[in-house]
Amino acid sequence: MKHILPTLVILLLLCCACHPTSNDTISPAANQNAYAQGFVIEDCESYIRMDLYSPWNLSQRMGRYYLLRSGKALPDSLIGELQTANTWCIPIPITRLVTTSCTQVGFLAALEQTHTIVGACNAEMVFTPLPDSCISLGEALNPSYERIIRSQPDAIMLSTYAEGDPVQQQLLKFSQTIVYNNEWMESHPLGRAEWIRVVGALYDLLPTADSIFAQAKEAYELRKAQVTQYLTTHPQRSIMSGQDFRGTWYVPSGNTYMGTFFADAGAHYYYADDNRGKSIPLSTEQVIREFGQADVWVGCNADSREALQLLDNKHQWFNAWKNDEVYNFNRQRTTQGGNNFWEQGVVYPHKILEDLIEILYPEVLEHELCYGCKLK
Q1: Residue 305 contacts by C-beta under 8 Å, 6 or more apart in sequence?
Q2: Helix (H/G/I), strand (E/B), else coil: 4
Q3: Domain end: 156, 175, 204, which one?
C-alpha cells in the first residue's frame, strides 16, 4: 500500500519582437500554442515575455514574467510594471530551480537541465536521478519552507491544486519567485507536453523545447491516425481505468488528458462524453455496472492479480479480470515508487498512446510496452 497513496494523490490532483505597454495582456484565447491553453509566450529580442493563467479561469493571469537574457536590459517602459503584483523579472538562463512535482523533472531531463535542481518535493518519488546536492523538501502539499529558502533558488516551479493554494500563498509571503506549472490541468496529452516551452524559456532554450514538442506531436498524431484507420475495418474495444481505494473508485472524465488518451487510442469509454474535466468518484457497485463488461483494464496500482484481489474481492468480477486483460503503468518504477510514466510520459505522450494502442489492438503497431505491464 505504501506506493498506492502517493500515486493516487498524483492521479487526483496530473514569437516576435515586441514592446508591450504595462497594461498589455497576452490573451490565452489568442495564443499560438498548438494545444496548451494555460500559458502564452512571446520571444522578444532582449527578453522572453511569458504569461501563465489559472487553469480554473483562463481569463485570470496568475503570473507575468520578463525573462531577461544575459547582458540585456529591460526596456525603460517596462520597469514600472515590475511593481505590479505577480510580475517578475528573471535573468536567464536560470541555474538554480526548486521543483514541486515529478512531472517538472521530466521536462528538465528532456532539456538536460536536471543538474540545476537544488531542491525537490517528494524527492524519493522521482524516477530521474537528482543531483547529490539536491535538498529534499518534504511533501509537495506541505513542504519545508525553511529548506526552500535555504536552497536559494532562482525560481520555484509550483503546481497548484486549487484556487488560493496554501503553498502558493505561503511562498508569496516569503517573497519567493514562483513559476506556475499547471500542465496537469490541460485536457489534452499534447497540451501537457507543450509545457516544455515554459521550462525551456527559463533556460533560454525555446528552440530546443519547440523541437522536442514538435517531434512528440508528430509521433502522437501519426499513431492516432493509424488506429483511426484500423478501426474503419475492425470493431472497437472498451476500456476501464483505476481501482477501488478506501471505498471510492476515481475514473477520468472524457474531458481530461486520460480521457483524451482513451479516445485517441480508439477505445470505447463510458465517460467519453463527460465534460467535467476532472476525476469522477464512483462506488465499486457503479463501476461494476458501468465497466463490468469492459475489454481491458488499465491504470490499476497493484503489481499482481493476487494483490489486486486482496484489495477487494469484487475486482475479480470484471470481464477484463476474467480475460486476463489488467494492466498497470509500473514497468519503469523505482523501488521507492518513482515512476517514469509521470516524468518521461508527460514529455513524450506518444509513448503512452502507443502502449494503449498495443493493449487494445496489438496487431496495429506490434509495439513493446514502455510503461504498461500486464498483471500476473
Answers
A1: 321, 326, 375, 376
A2: helix
A3: 204
**Edge-to-edge strand ranges of the sheet holding 57-69:** 39-43, 47-54, 57-69, 87-92
Domain contains 209: no
Q: Nearest-CA neighbor of 220 among 359, 352, 371, 366?
A: 352
The answer to whether residues 178 and 244 belong to one domain is: no
Q: Residues 249-289: pLDDT tens digits?
A: 999 999 999 999 999 999 999 999 999 888 999 998 999 99
Query: What angle (nearest 5°) sits at the alpha carbon of residue 144, between those of residues 142 and 145?
Result: 105
Residue 3 falls within a domain, yes or no? no
**Residues 340, 332: Cα–Cα separation, whole Å:** 6
**Residue 27, domain extent:** 15-204
**What is the pTM for the complete model shown?**
0.90
Q: ∠274-258-282 over CA atoms, to 5°?
A: 55
Query: Does residue 212 sit within a domain?
Result: no
Q: Burial of 62 by CB count in 10 Å (0-12 exposed, 13-18 middle, 19+ buried)? A: buried
Q: Is 239 helix (H, G, I), strand (E, B) or coil?
A: strand
